[in-house]
Design goal:
Elements lengths: L5 H31 L3 E10 L5 E12 L3 E3 L5 H7 L2 H23 L5 E5 L2 H5 L3 H12 L6 E5 L1 H5 L3 H12 L3 E7 L6 H4 L6 E4 L1 H4 L6 H16 L3 E4 L5 H10 L3 E2 L10 H14 L1
Parallel strand pairs: 2-4, 4-5, 5-6, 6-7, 7-8, 8-9
Antiparallel strand pairs: 1-2, 1-9, 2-3
Helix pairs in contact: 3-5, 3-12
The protein binds ligand C2E and magnesium ion (3 copies).
Length: 282
């Protein structure tokens, strides 16, 4: 704040701050109602093999059907839900809905059915009993563990917690795959990741969106993909919007990707329709 205008600045700032705090509190109350009233749904964005365009799986993305504000994206509520812990209840609901959807795909398409990939917040993952709840849901819905991928964040790994390591190992032992989401945006390096029980690296959209205009970024992605493959990890590039990005990624050796170029997130109904049609076509 510049000298002389300090007081005026604060007068302008405080009401804004007050409004922001009140809005967050209101959001929390509304989230409680949303959890109780089952206002959350899940959409599914295809994860495709870049070379062939064939869909390998779908990422489950939560949406909130707000009674007054319409359909809200996670950017409008996930942060507050993380802070309050409500993300645990929301995450459980997403897990139920997404696993149920994938079980239906499996019944429709059999061996050709795509997998489902579900975002798990650090707080949800650390909740005691998380791993067994995942197994319980798979059993209840009849989805083979090999059809489930869980997307975790770097923040989960940062605290270097033995329990997290054990849980990741146990999940993978049963055939569930684990992906690190938004790779490259945090602090961990791939050389660090080689110790983590992981199957898949999802390269953040930040890299995808700059790969075509910066040789340096392209070289960086090339390095990430090579190292990941050396470590036996699969790579998925996020946020592919242009063919030039897809082609560069494909040339680099990145096998999978997702983004608006291929498809926006689909409703559950749209996803089942596509999956059923593809089965008929095959
Ligand atoms: P994410 O896991 O990295 O998911 C990818 C996000 O990028 C999605 O946004 C997706 O719609 C968007 N996206 C996909 N392709 C493109 C593209 O080509 N261009 C652009 N600009 N964006 C693209 P969405 O659905 O708004 O989700 C945002 C974030 O919210 C997710 O990022 C994830 O971190 C979080 N999230 C979503 N669903 C859940 C959930 O069920 N649980 C938890 N804990 N977090 C979730
Ligand atoms: Mg994700
Ligand atoms: Mg991501
Ligand atoms: Mg992302």
């Amino acid at each position: 704040v510049a000298k002389g205008e300090g007081k005026g600045q604060w007068r302008r700032y405080l009401p804004d701050l007050h409004t922001a705090i009140v809005e967050r509190l209101e959001l929390r109350t509304e989230l409680d109602q949303a959890i109780a009233g089952k206002e959350f749904t899940v959409e599914f964005q295809p994860i495709v093999e870049l070379r062939t365009g064939v869909t390998a799986g779908y990422e489950a993305l939560v949406r909130w059907n707000h009674p007054h504000r319409g359909r809200l994206l996670p950017g409008e509520f996930i942060e507050v839900a993380e802070e309050s812990g409500q993300i645990v209840a929301i995450g459980t609901e997403v897990l139920h809905q997404a696993v149920a959807a994938a079980a239906r795909w499996q019944r429709e398409a059999g061996d050709a059915a795509p997998y489902v990939s579900i975002n798990v917040s650090a707080r949800q993952f650390r909740t005691p009993g998380f791993v067994s709840s995942v197994h319980d849901i798979l059993t209840a819905e009849g989805l083979p563990p090999g059809r489930l991928m869980l997307e975790i964040t770097e923040s989960l790994l940062l605290r270097d917690d033995d329990q997290v390591w054990e849980d990741l190992t146990e999940l993978r032992t049963t055939g569930i795959r684990v992906a690190i989401d938004d790779f490259g945006t945090g602090y961990s390096s791939l050389s660090y990741l080689r110790h983590v029980p992981l199957d898949v690296v999802k390269i953040d959209r930040l890299f995808t969106s700059t790969i075509a205009s910066s040789a340096q970024q392209a070289a960086l992605v090339d390095g990430i993909v090579r190292l990941a493959h050396t470590l036996g990890l699969q790579v998925i590039a996020e946020g592919i919007e242009r063919t030039v990005e897809r082609d560069l990624l494909s040339r680099i050796g990145c096998r999978y990707g997702q983004g608006f170029l291929f498809a926006r997130p689909l409703t559950g109904e749209q996803a089942i329709t596509v999956i059923t049609e593809q089965k008929v076509a095959a």
